[in-house]
């Protein structure tokens, strides 16, 4: 069972980390957090954290579906969050 990520400080840190050098990424994450921030689960926060460890260009390629997640990013949690990001 997924649990809601109830720690507002953890969510705020994640939102801050999502501020990127590329405007396109910033806009996608801004819309994502406006829509989903209050509903994020611990698994969602973990998946977002892993995505935010990517370079701006690699992240943009995933967000725009130019590439699909590979390696340690090719799991259900990351794919679910990536689908949400791609559809905001």
TrEMBL record:
Alphabetically sorted, this entry's keywords are: Chaperone, Cytoplasm
Q: Where in the cell is it found?
A: Cytoplasm
Q: Name one Pfam family in it.
A: Sdh5
**Gene3D superfamilies the record matches:** Flavinator of succinate dehydrogenase (1.10.150.250)
Q: What is its main location?
A: cytoplasm
- The domain of life for this entry's organism is Bacteria
Hey, which family's this protein in?
Belongs to the SdhE FAD assembly factor family.
Instruction: Supply the name of the protein.
Output: FAD assembly factor SdhE
**What organism is the protein native to?**
Paraburkholderia denitrificans
